[in-house]
Structure formats: C-alpha cells, structure tokens
Amino acid sequence: MSSDAGFVEYVSDQIAEAGNVSSRKMFGEYAIYCDGRVVALICDDRLYVKQTDGGRAFIGDPVEAPAYNGAKLSFLIEDRIDDREWITELIQITTAEIPLPKPKKPKGPKQAK
C-alpha cells in the first residue's frame, strides 16, 4: 500500500519550522529530509523517525518498529503528529544528530580500453 501524498504534505507542514524540510517519493513511499538529511520515512501513512540518542531521550519510551520488512528499527510516531511543537522539536533533535551525507564523487570520462 502506498502512502497518500496528502498525509506526506500534512506531516511536512507540521514540521516545516524544523528547518529546510522536503520529501521525496521512493518506491511508493516517502523519505522526509530536513536540512539535507533523511530524518524520517513515511510508509503506509505512518511516520517513522530515525533513531537517535537525543530522540530517545526526548520521547522517553518510544514505540520502535521497522518502516518496511528488513529495515532498521525507527521511532513510530502515531499519537503526537498533531502536536506541531513536539514533532518539530523531535525533528530538530534528530537532524542535529544525523551527519550530512557524503558528497557524491563527480563522474569522470570513461577511459578507453
């Protein structure tokens, strides 16, 4: 089951003040970015925030679940999505602990054999 674009837009709006927030559709589901880092996934209209020590401390007793079969555990956020201040702070904490992705190496010309 694919996630609804309206739900993705709602979540993105809720966390808009966390930083530069965007989403990207991937295989029918969505990755949520904040300041260039993947901080969460939306799968089957459920929000999965990447695990960080700060996020765990902030949530207290998080519900952990994989976003899809074979995925690492994430924090499953269900009952606090509507709390804009709380979810924004969680995303800010998470963003601060996730390193920026390594820059991609430029593709050079192919060498003839």
Number of domains: 1
**Mean residue pLDDT:** 92
Beta-strand segment tally: 6
What is the CATH homologous superfamily assignment?
A: YgaC/TfoX-N like chaperone
Order of helix and strand elements from N to C terminus: HEEEEHEEH
Short description:
By secondary structure, the chain is of the alpha+beta class. It contains three helices and six strands. The protein has a single domain, classed as YgaC/TfoX-N like chaperone (Yope Regulator, Chain: A, 2-Layer Sandwich), CATH 3.30.1460.30.
Description:
With 113 residues, the chain is α+β, with helices and mostly antiparallel strands. It has a single domain (5-97), classed as Yope Regulator, Chain: A, CATH 3.30.1460. 27% of the residues lie in helices and 27% in strands. It contains three helices and six strands. Strands 1-2-3-4-6-5 form a six-stranded antiparallel beta sheet. Helix 2 runs antiparallel to helix 3 (84-97). It is globular and about 55 Å long.
Chain-wise SSE layout:
Elements: H1 5-14, E1 21-26, E2 29-34, E3 37-43, E4 46-49, H2 53-59, E5 64-66, E6 73-77, H3 84-97
List keywords for this structure.
113 residues; alpha+beta; Yope Regulator, Chain: A; six-stranded antiparallel sheet; 6 strands; 27% strand; globular
